[in-house]
Amino acid sequence: MLRGLYTAASGMITQQRQQESLSNNVANANTPGYKADQTTIRAFPELLLQQTGSSKQIPTTQGGVNFPVSQTIGPINTGVYVQETVPNFAQGDVQETGLPTDVAIIQGQVPDENGFLFFSVQNENGEERLTRNGNFTVDGEGFLVTNQGNYVLDEAGSPIQTNGLDYVVTPEGFVQTEDGAFPLGIRYVENSNELVKEGNDLFAGESVDVPAAATFSLQQGALEQSNVNTMQTMADMMNAYRLFETNQRVLRAYDESLGKAVNEVGRLG
C-alpha cells in the first residue's frame, strides 16, 4: 500500500512541474523570440517482484530434500518524473513592427537537423550569449543593445555603435551606418538542444560561424514572435490539472485505507 502512496505522490509532483512549465509559456506568449519549454516525462524503471522464503520438497531415496524456491509475482512501476525541460526551437511567426531597431532572423536551410541561428549579445558579465529576440534599441552612448541593456555584437565579437537611429540592416546581415558597414554577429548552433536557457531570452552554449550551407535573411522593422501555441498550451494545462486531481484522489483513498487499517483492524483483533 505504501508503494501506491509513493506512486500517486510522484504523479502529483510531475503534474505540478508540468503546470509550472506551461504557465511560464503562457506568461511569455507575447515575448519576442521566446521559445516554448517542453517537458519530457518518464516512468521510473520497473521492478520485478518475487516471493522468496518458500521451499519445495524433492523426493529422494533418503526420504526427500527441501530446496528453496522463489515465485515470480510480476512487475511493478514506482511512478513517473520529469526527466528534463527543453525549449522548442521552431521558428516563430515574423510580424512587422515598423521600428527600425527591431530585427528578425528568417531562417532558411541548415545543415543539421537541430541547427539554429541566433543573434550574438554580451551579458552583464561580459560573456557571449545567444538570443532570438531582436527587440533592440540604441543606448545613450550610441551602441545597439537589447531591451535589457546587453550589447549586440558584430561578427568579431565587439559591440556595434550606430550613433543613433539612422542606420540600415541589410537582409545579408550588415548594419550600415555613416561610419561604414558592420557584419551583425549571427551565430550557428549545431545542436540547439544542448543550449542552457537563461533569463531575459538568453541562451548559453557553444556556437560557431554560420556555415556556408546555412541560409538566412534579416528583416529590419520586424520581430520574430513567440512560438507558444496558446490554445494548445491552455488545453495541456487543463489536462495536467485533471491528472493532478486524479492522483490526489488516489492518494486520499490510500490514506483513508491506512487509517482504517490502523484504527479498526486492530480493534477487531
From TrEMBL:
Annotated ranges, domain Flagellar basal-body/hook protein C-terminal: 219-263
Localization annotation: Bacterial flagellum basal body
Pfam families, A to Z: Flg_bb_rod, Flg_bbr_C, LlgE_F_G_D1
UniProt-listed InterPro entries: Flag_bb_rod_N, Flagellar_basal_body_rod_CS, Flagellar_FlgE/F/G, Flg_bb/hook_C_dom, FlgE/F/G-like, LlgE_F_G-like_D1
Keyword vocabulary terms for this entry: Bacterial flagellum, Cell projection, Cilium, Flagellum
Residue intervals of the Flagellar hook protein FlgE/F/G-like D1 domain: 117-176
SUPFAM superfamilies: Flagellar hook protein flgE
TM helices/strands, residue ranges: none
Every Flagellar basal body rod protein N-terminal domain range: 5-35
Family per similarity comment: Belongs to the flagella basal body rod proteins family.
The name this protein goes by in its record: Flagellar hook-basal body complex protein FlhO
